[in-house]
Amino acid sequence: MKIHLTLSFLFISISAFASIDRGRVDSLKILIAGANKQTLPDTTTIKRLNNLAENYFDSNPDSTLFYGRKSIEQSRKINYRQGLANGLVLTGHANFFKGRFAQGQQNFDEALDIYKSINDLKGLSNCYKLYGRMDNLLAKYQTALYYLNLALDLNTQLKDDTEIADCYKNIGIVYFSEGQNSTALDYYYKALYLTIKNNDHNASASIYNDIGVVLQGMEVYPKALEHYHKALNLFKGTNNLTGVGTINENIGEVLIAHKEYDRAIVHLSKAIKIAKKQDDKDGMSSVFTDLGLCYAHKGQFALAKRYLDTSLQIASKFKIVYNQAYALIGMATMYNLQKDYKNAYIYATQGQHLAATLRNLTVRSSAALQLNKTLAGLGRYDDAYNMLKRYNELKDSLNNNESIQKLTSYNLELNFASKERQLAQQHKEKDDSYNQRIKQQRLINLIFLTIIIGMLAVSIVYYRQKRKQQQINAMLEDKNREVLQQKTDLDDQAKKLNDLNVLKDRLISVLAHDLRAPLSTLRGLFSLLEDETISHEQMLAMIPGVLKKLEYTSDFLDTLLFWINSQMDNFDSSTKSFFIKDIVAYETESYLEQAKLKGINIIDSVSQDAVASADPNSIRIVIRNLITNAIKFSSENDTIEITSIQQDDHNYVISVKDTGMGMSEEQLGKLFKSKVNSNTGTNNESGTGMGMLFCKDLVEKCSGKIWVTSKQGQGTKFSFTVPMGKLTESHLEVA
């Protein structure tokens, strides 16, 4: 039974496509031409409609809906159950993508019944997977995991690596949404191993983006941007507009965290353009909130409120719980910036309540932070303090050591496995090339012998065969040398991996030893407060000491995290030209208050026009460590002076000199060689003993050298070299 496509239907179809892309119209013309030869739709036409619906999803979901509905309509006419189920799944996917969750659920439920009745395991697994993705958007995490694990079991039976990887990825997304970053990383890297193995760039790009989101939540922004750019490069040349839009939004959010609002708006504008084109309700709501935050921080509150209101309306209408919470927190942020704490409190409490249902650590910590600011602005200091404690607990969970260690371990394993695969591929290519040359040589010899067989004597034939054997032996010797060299390279890689493992153990030891004391102090103080063991006056007396330990711990963690990143093979040192004065002035200003409390005078004598060429973040860390070290070992009326002089035509020497307590010869001998036992400062300040080791490593990565001169009781002078640079007009514009 085949239906005839009348002329009126043709006109209606082409008219309906007036606003649709040209490629879709051309594809429809092909289908209409084929259908005009039939009286009823056939299975081939329905399969083509479903293929078109699937191929258009990443670039134009409206096309997916159109072709999916046509497939459903024609499948029902001929009772083609396989085509009907496939059309329902594609239509359901597009419906929930556009925020029509009830329609999506209805499509999926009908498709599941059909797949089960015809025992189509592949179709069933795909439907389960999409059901799980939809439930994750609705914050139904347990249901989402149930469906995704069903899909994973079926794909494991089918031995479909591509779909197994996609299931791992989506399970990781659910665990990330629940705030279980460590478990999310487990699944992301399982998926990434499979996509790299199968050379699936599109899927790898999506996973790199998801790992970047975890890093962004942990505030490891340079590594997050590195993963986003990896994903963006892999997406280039594809039609995956959804992926490109998502990555631009994520890059925009990192730039917001860095307070680079104008640059963030550039990326967010690209993201919103794609989301609007695809009618992506989830994407539009999320990006509108980000744009609202940008304009709020720029002081353009009317524009910010318009964006945030739009985001909240979309998220509420389509019940996208995550975006609702995100928009409410954005509203609270905007009102806090205006010091309108009454309105901020309304949105902050709503955002806090909704965030609690999500379990996502990033959203919950953001909600706690804004509610803390609101309560402080309203004068409710006790409530604000409790909320600040809650915020710190969430941030600690977000940045837990387990996630950092897993990330480091996975990256090392992934890089090593990738290099092994590259070497294996090179071996194969060389072997194939070698065998091909051997075959060609044999063919040439055969033809040559055939032509001149009657003209050559036995001695000439013997001579040529012997020469041929010598050539083969020489080639085999070359091949053996190459194999030995590659074995040596692999041994070097294994040694390097072992060295990095030792480094990991060393860092864990430092974290376990040097962070235990301040955390124990805080825990003890909070226990005393909870038990009401100490009075209010006693608590106030203890607070300055606790704050000193917190400041030390925070500074140490900043330095340690940056140094950990610098130890990665793929760490981008971001070498650029910059004014040394800018960095020194910033760090000096940051520590003026601390120096003033000890009665210490800090003098910035760095030349205004001294330009260095290095990684400014590395130099900033070094100068920060040297200044804090000088303050630590100086007393009242001491002086700290920072200077820069040109050493030669290629280098500047930056020095931090103090008139403090100085060091003995024994201390000087151990300073840059390994972790030392740090002495307490003039006000009993503590230290880790790792700071100078970090400084030496960072200076050497910037092609410099560091040294120290000191006499006990007469002060200390730390000096290091940094390459000279030259600022162009483009550098000045960036600056």
From TrEMBL:
TPR repeats by residue range: 165-198, 205-238
PROSITE patterns per the UniProt record, alphabetical: HIS_KIN (PS50109), TPR (PS50005)
MF terms (GO), sorted A to Z: phosphorelay sensor kinase activity
Signal peptide: 1-18
One Pfam family from the record: HATPase_c
Chain segments annotated as transmembrane: 443-463
InterPro entries per UniProt: HATPase_C_sf, HATPase_dom, His_kinase_dom, HisK_dim/P_dom, HisK_dim/P_sf, Sensor_HK_Regulatory, Sig_transdc_His_kin-like_C, TPR-like_helical_dom_sf
The reaction(s) this protein catalyses: ATP + protein L-histidine = ADP + protein N-phospho-L-histidine
Coiled coil: 473-500
Enzyme class: transferase
Keywords: Coiled coil, Kinase, Membrane, Phosphoprotein, Signal, TPR repeat, Transferase, Transmembrane, Transmembrane helix, Two-component regulatory system
Known EC number: 2.7.13.3
Domain called Histidine kinase: residue spans: 510-726
Family matches, as PANTHER family: HISTIDINE KINASE 1, TWO-COMPONENT HISTIDINE KINASE
UniProt-recorded name of the protein: histidine kinase
Native source species: Mucilaginibacter xinganensis
